């Protein structure tokens, strides 16, 4: 095989595959390629690594090692250089339940328990009867949960929504938003792509209106302006009004995300579905939406996460969600200590981060699971 | 430009197209098309790109809408009536240039979806039929895979099986081998030849002139949105009448 430049050449032995050079693969290869490829990059690695380690150590020191875990407000006053977790401990019930009446709090516990069991049941791949659990969680659970929390059914005393607060309020607002916005958003997206002018323009108007107005404005309108148009004596629940505003706002964003997914599909998919004789709704349900939604899982979860964090805005219409409760508790003169506000906000941040990161990881997991080797 | 009498059968026409015209916006893409197809006929449609041949067969299952004239398929006229359209689509299978398999479903699910949801077949029956057709296109062992894991030739054979599972009376092929690597064209053509042997009515838009010679019993040449010439294959290739056809044939058959 010394000379392949002659016109006549026939290969007699096939060249075997060899492993890649050791310095380019494995852990060492990775470190070399990514961290220490040039002297300048090596310097950057050392400097950034040092800064990272220093700030992580500082945070852990404040949050854990130097923090106050037992005792009352005196202990926190004595140690201003660490988190004051006893403040969270003392107020924990209030952060979870708001002003929900103490003897009725088991109802909240039950709802949260069913919620978490249901979410894990639906989310865990190998669980039996997953479809039923999912259907129950999406269709029946919201009504049952509302009944349990508000009361008036099964002989439960009514707990007015003005007494709801804390984490349970955050959950109610975000879950209703999530459960309503996805199906409504899908319908709006399909409507926006419809050829029928009335459906099309209605959907475009709805989406552009709710997307074009700041969420704070929507909440203000729902809380203070809308009641002016009601006949005297009629009043429907402040929380309910905020919920509708939230759900529509999120649905408008969701519709645009879903529309992106619909547009990313090849025209051939629509044509193949048509050519097999599938009706519009069947081809949407069986062919188009499964692919379109899969393509935009990151966008959908992004909208969910945004919605979850935006629930804190209900603060401005006087509803006290988790952040609102913490915010109010900090003002207590007994806890007027330097480390208390920071601890309170750190607690809120950690709670929100846990939920948002959980959603984000679950969306990655679903994406990997639904990947059928098709790259477009 | 009228249809030739079919020598082999005196069967009823399954497709009748009369004075059909179609425009894309201002562009007159199909002009005065008259075409009659009887059961069991195998027609190859050829012509330069942009001549309207794909658009013509896409009008037959209403993927494209015609503006003038009449198209009757399987005794049903294609109008805006959804019931008519759905009837025709159930009876007419279509194979696309880019396969258009459903990437989120397995090969078997691709084949059973329409029989289950459109024909209302029980799942077990649909799966049995699907396996039968997957065997006929020689890939039963790929049934549980996803389309993305198959080669182009295999995907196109699945697409043929998927259409056959609806047990259509007519099959339309829109350049079925144009997107394939040269090594895979034969496996798809072999399947189409076998299908022709079963007596299926086929309309095939293709540049595979070998296929046209051996399988077709009529070749249609289109240019500029019109049917320029149609004839039996041996006459068409050996004795083309119009200058446009002669030019086309000289250009594609020179190697």
TrEMBL record, chain A:
**A GO biological process held by the record:** amino acid transport
Q: Does the keyword Mitochondrion apply?
A: no
Protein name (Swiss-Prot/TrEMBL): Amino acid ABC transporter permease
Q: Name one GO molecular function term.
A: transmembrane transporter activity
Q: Which Pfam families match?
A: BPD_transp_1
Query: Transmembrane ranges?
Result: 40-60, 106-124, 136-158, 164-191, 203-226, 238-258, 312-330, 342-360
Q: Which GO terms describe its cellular component?
A: ATP-binding cassette (ABC) transporter complex
Give the record's keywords alphabetically.
Cell membrane, Membrane, Transmembrane, Transmembrane helix, Transport
Residue ranges of every copy of the ABC transmembrane type-1 domain listed in the record: 167-356
**Can you tell which superkingdom this protein's organism belongs to?**
Bacteria
**Membrane topology, from the record:** Multi-pass membrane protein
What is the species of this protein? SAR324 cluster bacterium
The text of the family note is: Belongs to the binding-protein-dependent transport system permease family.
Q: Which InterPro entries match?
A: AA_ABC_transptr_permease_3TM, ArtM/GltK/GlnP/TcyL/YhdX-like, MetI-like, MetI-like_sf
Question: Where found?
Answer: Cell membrane
Automatic annotation (TrEMBL), chain B:
Q: Which SMART domains match?
A: AAA
Q: Which UniProt keywords apply?
A: ATP-binding, Nucleotide-binding, Transport
Return the InterPro entries for the record. AAA+_ATPase, ABC_ATPase_HisP-typ, ABC_transporter-like_ATP-bd, ABC_transporter-like_CS, MetN_ABC_transporter-like, P-loop_NTPase
Q: Could you cite one Gene Ontology molecular function of this protein?
A: ABC-type amino acid transporter activity
Q: Name one Pfam family in it.
A: ABC_tran
Span of domain ABC transporter: 15-249
Gene3D superfamilies, alphabetized: P-loop containing nucleotide triphosphate hydrolases (3.40.50.300)
- Source domain of life is Bacteria
Which CDD domains does the record match to this protein?
ABC_HisP_GlnQ
The similarity comment for this entry is: Belongs to the ABC transporter superfamily.
Stated name of the protein: ABC transporter ATP-binding protein
Q: Which organism is it from?
A: SAR324 cluster bacterium
